[in-house]
């Protein structure tokens, strides 16, 4: 979220001028995400100014691997990569549609989720689960970690277990102060994770919040964007579990919506409820410290709440 400032104190955005100097006089800011700020350039092109780790040829290959499967919706395609004052800028094709809905941090969701939104989520999950995991996807590093997720592992569940252990060691004391039985809960989660059976290895987006799914006027998904936050190859049940949890993170009915979507995805997609619950604990344990380390940060507060309620974590 941007901090509100008066026109007199808000610093001028230098990037429209930069893009104008490079042949895009109509450049305008159109959005911002975890990884950077996006500018519309016209003629079906956008530019992304990366505020976190820059993209690599590996990112480009992952995008190409996904696009090669001709999904029923568009996905990102990097056309060129440049650098300006040490900041990476990618030029990409503009994706169609409008966000399925606003982020729950800024828009309260109604108690009953619209059927069209649930259908859209199911359609996206089914389509992504049809894309096999590739070597490039396995070589990606998820946000907050220091090595490729699959490095040294042959099973997704074992790779995740190692990630959980590293993440808990980073700043686990901050989370333990707000989550009773933290150390035991980590062990419960690791045991549950390692006991999960092998599963197909497919692409995982890892951040299917509603703004990252674009729809047409009929509500059909026409684009999925912002791969990279937790993008990897792995069990498609992980994607479903995370999607159920993050669809509505902050609204007044968030807990009800997570429970409803978890049941829906288990029933419609055939995933084990226990696996979904385990993966939800894993997500909270591996992303809790990415934006802040106390209750002033919404994501940290949300992760702590997820763990306090998670049946696998607490063995309740």
TrEMBL record:
Q: Name one Pfam family in it.
A: APH
Protein origin, superkingdom: Bacteria
Q: Which InterPro entries match?
A: Aminoglycoside_PTrfase (IPR002575), Kinase-like_dom_sf (IPR011009), Prot_kinase_dom (IPR000719)
Q: Which Gene3D superfamilies match?
A: 3.90.1200.10
Composition bias, Basic and acidic residues:
1-11
Q: Where is the Protein kinase domain?
A: 24-316
**Where is the segment annotated Disordered?**
1-20
Q: What is the protein's name according to its record?
A: Protein kinase domain-containing protein
């Amino acid at each position: 979220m941007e901090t509100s400032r008066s026109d007199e104190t808000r610093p001028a955005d230098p990037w429209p001028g930069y893009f104008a100097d490079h042949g895009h006089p109509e450049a305008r800011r159109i959005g911002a995400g975890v990884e950077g700020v996006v500018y519309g350039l016209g003629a079906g092109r956008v530019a992304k100014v990366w505020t976190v780790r820059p993209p690599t040829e590996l990112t480009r290959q992952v995008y190409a691997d996904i696009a090669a499967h001709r999904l029923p919706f568009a996905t990102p395609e990097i056309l060129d990569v440049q650098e300006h004052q040490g900041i990476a800028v990618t030029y990409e094709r503009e994706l169609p549609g409008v966000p399925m809905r606003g982020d729950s941090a800024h828009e309260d969701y109604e108690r009953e989720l619209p059927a069209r939104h649930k259908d859209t989520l199911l359609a996206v999950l089914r389509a992504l689960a049809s894309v096999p995991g590739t070597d490039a996807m396995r070589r990606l590093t998820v946000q907050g970690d220091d090595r490729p997720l699959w490095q040294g592992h042959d099973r997704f569940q074992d790779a995740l277990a190692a990630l959980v252990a590293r993440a808990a060691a980073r700043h686990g004391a901050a989370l333990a102060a707000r989550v009773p039985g933290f150390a035991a809960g980590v062990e419960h989660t690791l045991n549950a994770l390692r006991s999960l059976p092998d599963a197909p290895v497919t692409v995982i987006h890892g951040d299917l919040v509603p703004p990252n799914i674009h729809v047409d006027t009929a509500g059909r998904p026409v684009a999925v964007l912002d791969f990279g936050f937790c993008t990897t190859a792995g069990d498609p049940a992980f994607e479903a579990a995370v999607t159920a949890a993050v669809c509505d993170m902050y609204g007044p009915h968030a807990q009800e919506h997570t429970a409803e979507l978890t049941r829906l995805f288990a029933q419609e997609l055939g995933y084990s409820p226990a696996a979904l619950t385990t993966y939800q604990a894993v997500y909270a344990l591996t992303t809790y410290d990415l934006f802040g380390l106390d209750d002033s940060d919404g994501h940290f507060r949300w992760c702590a709440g997820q763990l306090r309620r998670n049946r696998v974590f607490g063995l309740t």
